[in-house]
Design a protein that fits this description.
CATH class of the largest domain: Alpha Beta
Strand content: 15-25%
Number of helices: 8
Bound molecules: (3R)-3-hydroxy-3-methyl-5-(phosphonooxy)pentanoic acid
Helix content: 25-40%
Shape: globular
Structural class: alpha+beta
Number of domains: 2
CATH topology of the largest domain: Ribosomal Protein S5, domain 2
Order of helices and strands: EEEEEEHEHHEEEHHHHEEHEE
Length: about 300
């Protein structure tokens, strides 16, 4: 039996769109923070066939099956019973696939005694879900060309940011990221501009993180998020991951900023709003989000560490 843990990450500079080649390579550079309060734990045991159980329910997951298939083309992986538990809503825009594939790869590496480096594990995790490459590492993480390999851009202690998550729905999203990205690349008239501008946004964010310049990071991170949602919204058929509460939370963050609170929002392929702030604003940010009608719960996270094996 082998048990591994990984945290989800949220991208401040978003990845949306894939390169037109095998291996699940992103079309845009991305930069994320790993979150400590959200946890995926995965237990592996040898089985007679593969079985995948998530939060107590057996599932046929084509992404997991495809991932195991790709691994087995290069490595000898026996049939596995995989039991995964998330302490947060699954498939609802909280990066459960990022922590899921990072935990699974970490567990397989130990269970099968492959001795792969974190870089190699991150490469494999990317093939399951590109954002999973980033969840192999804690702190601030980049996923960039030319190798499209994730690497730690700054560690957890470099800048102790907090993230307050406003959960606005626990439902699973209708359109997953793979289909969503395909649709966006094929139909949004703004997709080429998104791909062209992403390296500059990435460079601006990297510099802001290096300098611990919150206002600069806030500006470019919100812009990257809104650009990504713009290309989603202008896909045909449209991809809208927001609900009315998502919009109220965005307005709430803008109001807080007008009142001098250093905070910015980011939103992924789901209706949850993640508000990044400095530690001395956490209470105020949480209280504000909690009072917004439609917010179901809030959760405060700090920056989390690497994916790892649990004894
Ligand atoms: O790695 P995937 O297929 O779950 O896609 C992640 C896409 C976003 O979460 C919206 C952005 C990102 O960079 O994590």
């Amino acid at each position: 039996m082998t048990k591994a843990l990984a945290h989800p990450n949220i991208a401040l500079i978003k990845y949306w769109g894939k390169q037109d080649k095998l291996g699940n390579f992103p079309a845009t550079p991305s930069l994320s923070i790993t979150l400590d309060g959200l946890v995926t734990e995965t237990v592996l045991t040898d089985g007679s066939t593969d079985r995948f159980v998530i939060n107590g329910k057996e599932q046929d997951d084509p992404k997991v099956a495809g991932f195991l298939g790709a691994l087995r083309a290069s490595l000898s992986v026996p049939p596995l019973e995989i039991e995964t538990v998330n302490n947060f809503p699954t498939g609802a825009g909280l990066a459960s696939s990022a922590s899921g594939f990072a935990a699974l790869m970490t567990a397989i590496n130990a269970h099968c005694q492959f001795g792969l480096s974190t870089e190699m594990m991150s490469d494999w995790a990317r093939q399951g879900s590109a954002s999973a490459a980033r969840s192999m590492y804690g702190g601030f993480v980049s996923l960039v060309p030319p190798l499209w390999r994730a690497y730690p851009a700054a560690n957890v202690d470099h800048w102790p940011l907090n993230v307050v998550i406003a959960i606005t729905s626990e439902e699973k999203k209708d359109v997953g990221s793979t289909e969503g990205m395909r649709r966006t690349a094929a139909t949004s008239p703004f997709y080429p501009a998104w791909v062209k501008d992403a390296p500059e946004d990435y460079a601006t964010a990297s510099e802001a993180i290096a300098q611990r310049d919150f206002a600069a990071l806030a500006g470019v991170a919100e812009l990257s998020c809104l650009k990504m949602h713009s290309i989603m919204l202008t896909s045909v058929p449209t991809l809208s991951y927001w609900n009315p509460t998502t919009l109220s939370c965005m307005d709430g963050v803008r109001d807080m900023r007008r009142n001098g609170i250093a905070a910015f929002f980011t939103i992924d392929a789901g209706p949850q709003v993640k508000v990044v702030c400095l530690p001395d604003s956490v209470e105020q940010v949480q209280a504000t989000l909690r009072d917004i009608p439609g917010v179901l719960t809030t959760k405060v996270c700090a920056l989390g560490g690497n994916a790892r094996i649990l004894d």
